[in-house]
User: Which sequence fits this backbone?
């Protein structure tokens, strides 16, 4: 079925966006990315380390996977805007996964700094995909600011706690005019399927694959779960009923 | 002349360009961005950007993350 994901007019056949953090080696990451079928994958921007070998950029280029730089590690709008500008210069893309976190313990987004950074980056011509809390009002404000998608957390980054507030995610999906991408908190395949059943346009995950016992197997599980969840959303679940409804004819 | 590159002090002879400072860390032909005192300098201007005493140079690249 032809059912592409559209972000800022760009078409993706996979609705699974991968992160690259946490993999034990580039070889393991490479196999996991291949198994995931992803076409869009995040990287972080850090100081050049002359001692580091191998490049995640070369790996992504070889796989033909589009790079989505993030602003991980930024605590203020000013820092995030600067890192986004560095990423645009280094990678030749104006797309950015905007992260502005409040503290190291929870890695929760700082909504005030996030919105300020989003407004500035949109004004500077960026395609902004903000990592946000699961707050439908903030999502609306980010969309109004010109963000190309909104990416609510299901649970804190790396926690694997799944989607703690599915009702809020549904509310966002109902009212958003841009793709809602479930970002952070996915623990296993059923979490990814639930995100898609709730109507999310895509799922972004890293830890649940890169730190799994077998990243390659879990990546394939996520690919299938996202696809299955999407089909279930489009197919439409039956209403929940209090009592039984016979599925075989009663007479004859 | 002393400048700071990625948080570390470097003693240079003076008159070096940003391109020469970046080359101390990496020879990667792409995937690298540089800023001087917080302002991003396009790669095409690295050679013509002269560093001066106490400049703070940041050189970033993409790594696994997110």
Assistant:
């Amino acid at each position: 079925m032809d059912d592409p994901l559209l972000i800022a007019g760009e078409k993706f056949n996979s609705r699974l966006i991968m992160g690259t953090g946490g993999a034990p080696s580039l070889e393991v990451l490479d196999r996991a990315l291949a198994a995931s079928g992803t076409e869009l994958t995040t990287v972080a921007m850090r100081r050049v380390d002359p001692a580091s070998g191998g490049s995640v950029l070369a790996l992504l280029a070889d796989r033909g996977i589009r790079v989505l730089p993030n602003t991980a590690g930024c605590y203020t709008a000013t820092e995030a805007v600067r890192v986004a500008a560095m990423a645009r210069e280094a990678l030749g893309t104006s797309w950015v996964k905007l992260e502005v976190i409040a503290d190291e313990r929870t890695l929760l987004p700082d909504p005030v700094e996030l919105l300020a950074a989003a407004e500035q980056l949109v004004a500077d011509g960026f395609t902004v995909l903000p990592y946000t809390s699961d707050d439908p009002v903030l999502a609306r404000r980010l969309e109004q600011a010109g963000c190309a998608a909104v990416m609510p957390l299901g649970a804190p980054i790396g926690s694997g706690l799944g989607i703690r507030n599915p009702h809020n995610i549904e509310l966002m999906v109902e009212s958003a005019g841009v793709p809602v991408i479930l970002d952070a908190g996915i623990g296993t395949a059923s979490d990814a399927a639930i995100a898609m059943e709730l109507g999310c346009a895509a799922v972004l995950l890293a830890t649940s694959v890169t730190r799994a016992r077998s990243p390659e197997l879990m990546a394939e599980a996520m690919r299938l779960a996202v696809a299955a969840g999407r089909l279930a959303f489009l197919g439409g679940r039956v209403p929940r009923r209090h009592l039984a409804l016979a599925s075989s004819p009663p007479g004859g | 002349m002393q400048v700071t590159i990625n948080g570390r002090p470097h003693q240079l002879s003076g008159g070096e360009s940003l391109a020469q400072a970046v080359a101390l860390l990496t020879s990667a032909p792409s995937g690298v961005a540089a800023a001087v005192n917080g302002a991003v300098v396009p790669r095409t201007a690295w050679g013509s950007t002269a560093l001066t005493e106490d400049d703070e140079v940041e050189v970033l690249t993409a790594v696994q993350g997110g």
